[in-house]
Structures are given as structure tokens and as C-alpha cells.
Amino acid sequence: MSAADRPIPVTILTGFLGSGKTTLLNRLLKRPSLAGAAVIINEFGAIGLDHLLIEASEEQFTLLDNGCVCCTVRGDLVATLKALDRRSRDGGLPGLTHVLIETTGLADPAPILHTLMAEPDLAGRYVVAGIVTTVDAVNGPATLDRHAEAAKQVAVADRLLVTKADLVADEALSALRHRLAALAPAARQSLARNGETDFDLMDITHSAMASDAREVAAWLDISAYECGPDCAHDHPGHHHGPGEHHVHAHHGIQSYSFVIDEPVEWSAFARWLDYVAVLKGEDLLRLKGLVHVTDQPGRPLVLHGVQHVFHPPVRLDAWPSADRRTRLVFIVRDIDRETIARTLVKFASIDPASIGAPSRAAA
């Protein structure tokens, strides 16, 4: 595949009002690794201001205003991404290597993912690199209590950046990070103190773009969901023992992890995915999976779904580790674990005895 035909990674930067998205974006754009990035900023209201604070060239920058990118201006987003692609191919925007979309503080990121995954003219040209969510260490706990949008922004994140960490006591910061880990166990956390952070956007980009099986293994590392003293979240004391799942619901949002010991028959499993998407899609915030299928047991399938939309499964050349069990991670709203397990048995023809929760020893 030539460089011109290689999919362009898209990172969605979200977070509630005042959580530091624009500050983070400014810092990221100064890094050499993002020299070829284009920026799309969505501002809600008659007069946009945030874009005036972004230190980017006019060629790099597009403003979507007078509406929220997750609803009324989705058509504008599609048109903008198509235009960026055309300009890049025609040489009018040389070296386009990345697209950053900063949402409004009230945006739901899921419809943006739908657009990138389901729009035929975009799916082949752009690839979702991940969702980065900023959380204000000072106001974050109260925001999560009061606003369902903030909880959902956290729940669907691939990476969480806790901003203003220098402005709160260690105990308060630790409590917030525990809460975030319960809400988004798959998301790694970083801190920003005095406006500085070691967060590297390219970390998640490389994982999303990699075809190497080891990168997929890291992306779906079950041990990350059972956060112990040395886990990727880096906040001591947060641990879930074998067989447990995250039950700390915020606005009905919970996460569950499953392992399936026996290989699955793909047509039945695909039928189950269709069932879940149709009947529970609105509340299936994200699903990630590594699936052991019977037809090619040496080549697992990688799944990635957002509500009603699923990426076409990607078949790996080999297993990324010695563990060849199917592993599924769900971020859901108002869906209980038993419902998921019951539908797996009924529609995917899975033996209930083979369905379990991950254990640290098996990861």
C-alpha cells in the first residue's frame, strides 16, 4: 500500500466544558509527530471562540460551528473529511498524516465514530485512532454526578487525561482516578500538572494502526481490566479479583469482561452480534473482542463495535499470545451482565459452562 492510499488516523478529543481540551490540543500540535495533522473544531453557539486560541495554520484548521458535531453538523463533518482527502491527494494539503477532531463539551462521541465507521466514502480513507477524553481534576467528580454526557465521554475513551492534577490533594486525585477506572477500565490514564503532561497521542495511534499481533494483544490486554497495584492505570489499590466485574455504575454505565473457553462458530456468533446491535445498540457504548473461531482456529478475529455499528472483523495472521480464548470487553448503559451471557448462549450457541470472567493468572 502506497503512502497516498494508507488510511489516515483520526483522533477524537472530547471532554466536558472547561476540562482542558483546547489547552491539550495546542500542546499536541507543537509536537513534531503531528506536523502533518489537520484540526477540526466543533463549537456550539452563534459565535465560536475556542478556535481563535488554537495555534495552527489556516491550511490545517477547519471550524464547524452553529451545531454539535454529534448531531446537527454530521453532514458538515463528512463533507470536511472528504475535502481534506481531496486536497491531500491533489497536493493542496501536502503531508496529511492525522486528523484531530475536538468536540464541544456537550458532545456524545459515539455518533462521530458511527460516521467514521459507516460512511462508505470515509471508511476506506480514514481509520479511528481512538478517543481521548479530558477530565478536570477539580470539577470532575461533581460533573460526573450531574451530567450523563460527561460519564459517557469517559466510558467510551481509549485514553483519559486528568487535567489540573496539581490543584487537588493526593487523596482527592486518587479517588477520582479510582472512579474513572471503574467507569472506563480499558482506558489508560495520564495526568496533567501545571499544564504539562507526558501524554503521547501517537501511543494510541500506533496501537490502532498496527497490524502486528502484539499491538492487538496490548489493546485487548485482559489484565488491564482487573486493575491491580502494577496495572496500566497507575493508581494503587484498585483491584478486582477473579470473576468480578465493574459494578460502579455512573448514570447506568458499567463495564463487563468475558472469556469463552471453547472456539465459536462464526456464523452463529455474527448472528448474535446482529441481535445485540438491533435490540441493545443504543446502550452498547463500545465492544472490543478477540474471537477464537472454529474455521481458522490459528487466526483470531478482532472485533470493534460502537452502538449499532461494527467494524468488519479483522483476521490476524496469528494469535498474539499463548492464550487462545475468546475475550470480549463491553462498555454498556443499563444492560446487566446476565443479559449478555444469556444472549450469548441462545443466539451464538455458546456452552454456558465455557463463559466466564477473566482471571489475572489467565491474562
Outline the structure in words.
This protein starts with 7 loop residues before the first strand and ends in a 7-residue tail after the last strand. The protein is globular, with a radius of gyration of 20 Å. It folds into two domains: 3-209, P-loop containing nucleotide triphosphate hydrolases (Rossmann fold); 240-362, 2-Layer Sandwich (Hypothetical Protein Yjia, Chain: A,domain 2), CATH 3.30.1220. Helix 7 links the parallel strand 6 and strand 7. Helix content is 30%, strand content 23%. By secondary structure, the protein is α/β, with parallel strands linked by helices. Helix 5 (140-146) crosses helix 6 (148-155). It has helices at 21-29, 74-90, 110-118, 120-123, 140-146, 148-155, 170-183, 201-209, 213-219, 266-280, 337-347, and strands at 8-15, 37-42, 61-64, 98-102, 126-136, 159-163, 188-191, 246-250, 253-260, 284-291, 301-306, 309-310, 314-315, 326-333, 355-356. Strands 8, 9, 10, 11, 12, 13, 14 and 15 form an eight-stranded antiparallel β-sheet that branches. Strands 3-2-4-1-5-6-7 form a seven-stranded parallel β-sheet, sandwiched between helices.
Fraction in helix: 25-40%
Give the number of DSSP strands: 15
> Would you state the CATH class of the largest domain?
Alpha Beta
Q: What is the molecular shape?
A: globular
Number of helices: 11
Q: Might you state the CATH topology name of the largest domain? A: Rossmann fold
Q: Number of folding domains?
A: 2
Please summarize the sheet with the most strands. Answer: 8 strands, antiparallel
* Mean pLDDT across all amino acids: 75
